[in-house]
Amino acid sequence: MGVTMLKSPDWHLLIVWYFFLGGIAGGAYFTAAIADNFGSSRDKSVFRIGYVLALLLIGLCGILLILDLGTPSRFLNMVMNFKFWDPMSIGAWMLGIFGFFAFVSSALSFVGGDGVAPLRRKLSLIGTISGFFIAAYTGVLLSATALPFWSNARLMGALFLASGASTGMAAISLLLYLSGESAGDGFKKVKRADRYAIMFEILVLAAFLVLLVALVALLGAAAKPLISGHYAPLFWGGLVAVGLVVPFVLDFVGHRARALGALAAALVLIGGFVLRYVVLMSIQA
């Protein structure tokens, strides 16, 4: 017998964009930190774009969260009254902490001098922790709700983290291509890393789907909209096919063609958005 669905939270596109952009921000910052700490001087454009992109997107996330709450005072109330047991309160605080690291890293990436680089690199490694949190906590936040499907989907945080890594790398590689800097080693390195990120996301998604099959038996109709209901074509076509399989194949078949690499990056971003959209909307169908 299926579990009775509780009243849905009625989340809309503002939250979908908040989840999506937050994932890209975390993934972009992580990519920039890796390029900064373990790359060469030729990777400067990679970490500059990554740090600045993370800063801009986390700023947009703050605006989206305020708009969703209705008034800035509600956001300030969450910030001023920290509640360690409240996922929303923790998320608001981590948004500010990650924004701080993104701002400092972005600023230091444009400052010359041999003494600046070591400080920037150390800060970026610490900031990566908050970036990982931002990318993954949205999935964990869903798992912390009382709705049967979300509360039983234990791999949601890992799936959102994997998607954040791949979309962050995809966004950086796409911006490198659009800015005319795709001829360097940085573009190739990011694309290579993104292939591994896509592979990891596919593996996590496969494990997630295995659990979903079990959830369908446990929850009945509560878990069906995602894999066999109204949103199933978007899930299988938009996320699995267009967002993962096609870009993975394009990267392998046309890894020497930069235009195909840019197309693959764009498709990964589409898939990342579709993932958040179908997860949030299907359970509210």
Structural overview:
With 285 residues, the protein is mainly α. Helix content is 79%, strand content 0%. The two termini are 20 Å apart.
Low-confidence stretches: 1-7
Could you give a short account of the major beta sheet?
none
Gross morphology: globular
Our Rg estimate from Cα atoms comes to: 19 Å
Q: How far apart, in Å, are the first and last alpha carbons? A: 20 Å
Query: How many H/I helical runs?
Result: 11
- Fraction of residues in helix: over 70%
Mean pLDDT figure: 82
User: What letter string, H or E per element, gives the SSE order?
Assistant: HHHHHHHHHHH
Subunit organisation of the chains: single chain
Q: How many strands?
A: 0
Class by alpha and beta content: mainly alpha
Percent strand equals under 5%
Briefly say what this structure is.
The chain is mainly α and 285 residues long. It has helices at 13-38, 44-69, 72-80, 87-108, 116-143, 148-152, 156-178, 185-219, 224-227, 232-253, 258-282.
Which SSEs are present, and which pair or pack?
Blueprint: H1 13-38, H2 44-69, H3 72-80, H4 87-108, H5 116-143, H6 148-152, H7 156-178, H8 185-219, H9 224-227, H10 232-253, H11 258-282
Helix pairs in contact: 1-2, 1-5, 1-7, 1-11, 2-4, 2-7, 4-5, 5-7, 7-8, 7-11, 8-10, 10-11
Task: Quickly list its features.
mainly alpha; 285 residues; disordered N terminus
